[in-house]
Design goal:
By secondary structure, this protein is of the alpha+beta class. The chain has helices spanning 10-17, 20-30, 34-39, and strands spanning 47-51, 56-59, 66-68, 72-82, 85-96, 101-104, 108-109, 115-117, 120-124, 128-133, 136-141. 17% of the residues lie in helices and 43% in strands. Strands 1, 2, 3, 4, 5, 6, 7, 8, 9, 10 and 11 form an 11-stranded mixed β-sheet that branches. Strand 10 (128-133) and strand 11 form a beta hairpin. It is elongated.
């Protein structure tokens, strides 16, 4: 443990002993970019919008939850299951506070037809597709 000068407060001694500044810096490095996810709540930004119509929602309740300006929360490592298929989210997903929807960055379709996004994979059941209407991607049943 590092020596602290005489007259140092107990709090300062604890900060030095636990190397609190290093711990705080390490924690902040692991934080998600909340401003990026906050921007996905804007109507003008492209996104995958998943309406919650009876979805099964699996997540680790011990993971951190981040508030996004009182409108939504940012969750980590979530799996969504619905009639349309499954989305496995490795990093973060937005859940609206009223539970009406989940939001992710827009998806892309790979050469093999697999639909992926920023740290997530989508497995669609037969009869479903992803459509883009003015930058808002949605999962819908095929016509």
């Amino acid at each position: 443990m590092e020596e602290t000068p005489a007259g140092t407060s107990e709090i300062e001694k604890i900060k030095v002993g636990y190397d609190l500044d290093r711990l705080i810096a390490a924690y902040q490095e692991k934080l998600p970019d909340l401003s990026f996810y906050q921007s996905l709540l804007s109507e003008e930004v492209e996104k995958l919008y998943i309406r919650n119509n009876g979805l099964q929602f699996l997540f680790n309740p011990n993971e951190e939850v981040f508030s996004l300006a009182g409108e939504a929360v940012l969750l980590k490592k979530v799996t969504l299951k619905g009639n349309w298929g499954t989305i496995e989210v490795e990093k973060e997903i937005i859940r609206m506070n009223d539970w009406s929807a989940f939001i992710l960055p827009p998806p892309s379709i790979g050469e093999n037809g697999e639909t992926t996004g920023n740290s997530y994979r989508i497995h669609l059941n037969p009869g479903y597709e992803i459509v883009n209407t003015n930058g808002i991607y949605r999962i819908v049943s095929e016509p």
